[in-house]
């Protein structure tokens, strides 16, 4: 089956790391139709719009989207490109795997999934900005909480682990979080899954101290954003973290890191997060073995000292991508 894949390189290091992810996609999806969509600061500078209605229509015409990163333009009326896409395509589930590519000294490895509600919470986009007082409306609905809990429960069953579904929340301060917690617990009970509700601040610490205690964690929008970034420490940094944004009709894959303009154009950006995001796209298309092969090949290269400078290596962004395609080809 041929797939239509939208490629959004974006700003900063996006045009450096996304081509490396595309190499992997082209290797496995030989008959795919790739088409580029320009979004972000560069487009805003040319047109005054970082993401237009026409762009959204183009994205909706894709079977999946691979996305780099965008830089926020100096515009007080700017609407986040990512929030716009997530809302317009109803990409309610943000999946952020935290997986170490190499085992620790005791032979264990980190393998958890953070399931982040992606369209509500503090990223609702409902704001009033003033000179003396600004407010952002934090939205938590039962319907939104239920569907993200259902996605998390499906992953618990798929992964078949002996861990409870962990619910990250802050209900002692944010009473709206009690609705989120209770809905997640009710949903998990219907699936026959045990739960453990943990205050998010304590969870951020404990997940670093005892990462092997955790398997699937479900939480609200901002908390999931922060928690997954914190967990970057367990994998080697943000340059290693992929993500998937999944809805009923659309799927969008992006590295967790930002546009990193301070290193843009130097050829040293780590493409692993972008490549692993491409691997998540392969898995979304039912190509789980191919996705695992990409992960194994990345791990093999890094274990041999082949990596970008942030991981102590000397490879350039494009060199690492090319070496990875070679490694994948040899393992097939």
Automatic annotation (TrEMBL):
Family annotation (Pfam families): Iso_dh
Residues in Isopropylmalate dehydrogenase-like domain copies: 4-324
A Gene Ontology molecular function term of the record: isocitrate dehydrogenase (NAD+) activity
InterPro entries named in the record: IsoCit/isopropylmalate_DH_CS, IsoPropMal-DH-like_dom
E.C. numbers: 1.1.1.41
Keyword Oxidoreductase found: yes
SMART domains according to UniProt: Iso_dh
Record-level GO BP terms: isocitrate metabolic process; tricarboxylic acid cycle
PROSITE patterns: IDH_IMDH
Keywords: Oxidoreductase
Family from the record: Belongs to the isocitrate and isopropylmalate dehydrogenases family.
Official protein name in the record: Isocitrate dehydrogenase
Native organism: Methanocorpusculum parvum
